[in-house]
Amino acid sequence: RSVYDDQPNAHQRFMEKLDACIRNHDREIEKMCNFHHQGFVDAITELLKVRADAEKLKVQVTDTNRRLQDAGKEVIAQTEEIIRCRVQQQNITTVVEKLQLCLPVLEMYSKLKEQMNVKRYYSALKTMEQLENLYLPRVSQYRFCQIMIENLPKLREEIKEISMSDLKDFLESIRKHSDRIGETAMKQAQQQKSFSTALQKQNNVNYGRNMHLSRNRVLESKNEVTLKRTFEDDDEHEEEVLTAQDLVDFSPVYRCLHIYSVLGDGEIFENYYRKQRRKQARLVLQPQSSMHETVEGYRRYFSQIVGFFVVEDHILHVTQGLVTRTYTDELWNMALSKIIAVLRTHSSYCSDPDLVLELKNLIVVFADTLQGYGFPVNRLFDLLFEIRDQYNETLLKKWSGLFRDIFEADNYSPIPVANEEEYKIVISKFPFQDPELDKQSFPKKLPMSQSVPQIYIQVKEFIYASLKFSESLHRSSTEIDDMLRKSTNLLLTRTLSSCLQNLIKKPHIGLTELVQIIINTTHLEQACKYLEDFISNITNISQVTVHTARLYGLSTFKDARHAAEGEIYTKLNQKIDEFIQIADYDWTMSESDGRASGYLMDLINFLRSTFQVFTHLPGKVAQTACMSACQHLSTSLMQMLLDNELKQISMGAIQQFNLDVIQCELFASSEPVPGFQGDTLQLAFIDLRQV
């Protein structure tokens, strides 16, 4: 640093000092060389001496090396052979190791192919999973493994397609077999209830025992046969309990569900299954247009629906999540609404009560079967009450025809009985009691005609028919009693009343028939209390119960009787008018014939014979009819005498007319109908007498 300082002569002084330093180092080098020179000369001398020995050693080493090389050629050859064998051995070991890694892969792939061939698709998927996760990663560097890896997704898709095809075949199979599955399930449900139902019928045999002994004996024998057949059927079917699994192979569903679950598409499968089953449900719920014509149509319809839901219930309990209780309940509610609508529509077309009854029985079995599988069926039993009203309407129409046929076939004359046996036959059919008649000897006549016991029997048959519908409806005896009484009231107040009213209005019904109709309605009215007892014996409900309805037959028969009485009065007056119309007075005759007119004598004889028939009528009816006839006759004669077209009249005509009036007064005074007080009946002609 001082060299470059700005001091004067600094560079010169530095160069001087540097030269001095160099001279010092040269002197030290020279001293060292002088010190080592002798040693260097000695070393060169020794080296020259060694050169000759080195030449000899080189020759010897070269010779030794040549001889050693000649001797080691064989060793080298053997060593190379050993090395080659060692390499081959190492390669073989490597190949064995690699083959040991590849063989399980090939075995598993072969197993996979075999499983595919025998359609064990779920096991095949498990094998694929093992291949992918365990075996193939170990040997993934080989080309054949890459081919396998590329083929596995294709095999999965193939399995999905095959399993889906199997599922479609399964869905088609259960669609075809649903009616058979349902029929089997309904039979089983029916068999389970058959024994208890038979016992119930056995207990119900006691109704009406005191009044209808012979009929109940027949019913007892029928129920004994029913019980016997029930035991035989139970024994016969005890070993033949078929289930849905016995009729349908569910393995495609399980297999497909497992396959899609393994593939991670379980939700897709569930949605597809439910969608297809909803479509099938809509097809099953669609009835045939002619279903209402035969009971077989209804049976097949119900069997298909039961089969459908039995399958769904089975799927619900044996699979996890494929269908849920919420799903089945939703499906059932949808189906139930459709079923009720279909039954309402088609049952309205049924005009045969037997078919309606068969439909009711099928609905009960249908409801009991599905209730056994946990489905709510209360709405079906509510529907049965609607169908019950329709059933009653069909019964009323049928019984209306029966009543008309009975009235048409009746001869409207008292029933003749020749001996005790015939008498017992009649009273076994109709509860008739008359102590006065019992005292009479045979042969004798019962006051009513043949239609009365027949009508009474048919009313009982109607009650039996109405009771058939009330069975198995899970209703109390009180409700059944109320239903029977209401339907019987409809029969009496509407059907029978209408038939009686129409009968009374028919032109061919004469006075004798009208009189007999009044007598018949009187006895039918008296028999109403026996019908109430009959219903009470069936239902075991006492008539003193507060809510027990009463039969309205009394008003029905009273109305019919009043109509018949009015018709009697009308026909009597019409008959009198017919006689009056043939009257032919000669108002200019000089003197009378000395006797009453022929038409009037015929009229009086007719009235006399007619009133004799009235002896079986209530006294008031006969008296009213007689008074009405006399008043009408008096009025008709008065109008004839005071006719405006009658311009003149002779004394002879007056005398002849007087003879006719005298005959009328004699008829009135002869008391053609007993019960009139004093000259009450003669007063009908007093105005005519004064004129």
TrEMBL record:
Cellular component terms (Gene Ontology): exocyst; plasma membrane
Xref: Gene3D superfamilies: Dsl1p vesicle tethering complex, Tip20p subunit, domain D, Exocyst complex subunit Sec15 C-terminal domain, N-terminal subdomain
InterPro entries per UniProt: EXOC6/Sec15, EXOC6/Sec15_C, EXOC6/Sec15_C_dom1, EXOC6_Sec15_N, EXOC6PINT-1/Sec15/Tip20_C_dom2
Pfam families associated with the record: EXOC6_Sec15_N (PF20651), Sec15_C (PF04091)
Record's keyword terms, sorted: Exocytosis, Transport
The keyword 4Fe-4S belongs to this UniProt entry's keyword annotation: no
Claim: Transport is one of the keywords in the record: yes
Exocyst complex component EXOC6/Sec15 N-terminal domain ranges (all copies): 17-186
GO biological process terms, semicolon-separated: Golgi to plasma membrane transport; intracellular protein transport; vesicle tethering involved in exocytosis
Occurrences of domain Exocyst complex subunit EXOC6/Sec15 C-terminal (ranges): 380-691
Family: Belongs to the SEC15 family.
Protein name: Exocyst complex component 6
